Amino acid sequence: MVYTRQNQSTLTTAQKKRFVSAVLAVKRSGQYDDFVRMHVEFYIGDGDGGHPVAHMAPTFLPWHRRFLLEFERALQNVDPGVSVPYWDWTVDRSPHSSIWGEGFLGGNGRRSDKRVMTGPFAYDSGNWNINEAVTEGEFLTREFGRPRDPMNLPTKDELEWAMRDSLYDSAPWNSTSSRGFRNKLEGWTSGVGNARFRNHNRVHRWIGGHMLGAASVNDPVFWLHHSFIDLLWDRWQRRHPQSTAFLPARKASGTGSVVAGDQPMPPWDVKPRSLIGHGDLYRYT
C-alpha cells in the first residue's frame, strides 16, 4: 500500500505525537544508534579512500533514499501509520517555526553549551542520550544560525540554482563537480567561508551542533531534512524528464571508485538505478 509523506507544517498535534513516539521507541530499542553508526561508516569524503556513497558522490541521493526507507520501516514496525514528514526550509525558515515546537522536535540549544533544553529530545526528558560519535557530551546540541559567524537557511533562489541544472552529475563525480544537480543540491562549491555551503550542506550548518558532520543522524531533524532532499530529487526528475535520472549510468574509465547506476551500492547491495522511482512505495503531498 502506498503511503504519504507530509509537509511537517501540515501535521496535526496527534500526528506529531505519533511520529515522536515512534522515534523514541526506535531509540529505546537500540536501532536508532545503528542508523547513526551506519551514516558515520559511509560518510567518506574526497580523498579518504574506499568507495564514497553517502556523500560527495552521485549516490548521495539514492543512498539517502534507501537510508530513509530503512528508518521509515523501523518506525512503521512501531506504528504502521507513521511516515517521515519533510521540512521545506525555503518556507519554514525561522527558529520559531512549528518544526521547533516543544511538542515536536524541540528548539535551539542554550548559548553556553548548545544543549537543547526543550522538547522530547532534550536530555532532561530522559529519553534521548547521545551514544554514538560523542564529542560534546550525552545531550543533543543545536546552534541555530551560527551566531559567531552568522548564516541563513537556503533561499528559494539558491535552491533554484540547483534545480535548473538539467544534468544529474558530472566528472570528477565528487564535491568539486562544477556541473550537475546532485552536487549543487548537496551544496559543495568553490566559495570561501559560509558562501561555500549551499542548500543541503547549509541546512546542516545552520542547525549546528550534532547536525555538523557524519553523526548528524543523532538529531532527529536529519530525517525531515533528508525527506525534503528526497522530494527535491523527485521534483527535479519531473522538471527534466529528458535527463538521465542518475549518472554515471555504467562503470567506465574516469569514474574511479564511484558507484555507477548498474553497480551494487553498499551496504544494501542494491543498484542506484533501482531507487530512481518510489511511486509504488510512497508519495508526497
Describe the fold and architecture.
With 285 residues, this protein is an all-alpha fold. It has a single domain (3-284), classed as Di-copper center containing domain from catechol oxidase (di-copper center containing domain from catechol oxidase, Orthogonal Bundle). It is built from seven helices and two strands; from the N terminus they run βαααααααβ. It has helices at residues 13-29, 31-42, 60-78, 156-163, 181-186, 199-207, 221-239; strands at residues 3-5, 282-284. A two-stranded parallel ribbon has the order 1-2. Helix 1 packs across helix 3 and helix 3 packs across helix 7. The two termini are 16 Å apart. The model has no long low-confidence stretch (mean pLDDT 94).
Structural class: mainly alpha
Distance N to C terminus: 16 Å
Strand content: under 5%
The CATH class designation is Mainly Alpha
Unreliable sequence segments = none
Helix-strand topology string: EHHHHHHHE
Shape: globular
Describe the structure concisely for a colleague:
By secondary structure, the chain is mainly alpha-helical. It has helices at 13-29, 31-42, 60-78, 156-163, 181-186, 199-207, 221-239, and strands at 3-5, 282-284.
Secondary structure elements and their pairing?
Elements: E1 3-5, H1 13-29, H2 31-42, H3 60-78, H4 156-163, H5 181-186, H6 199-207, H7 221-239, E2 282-284
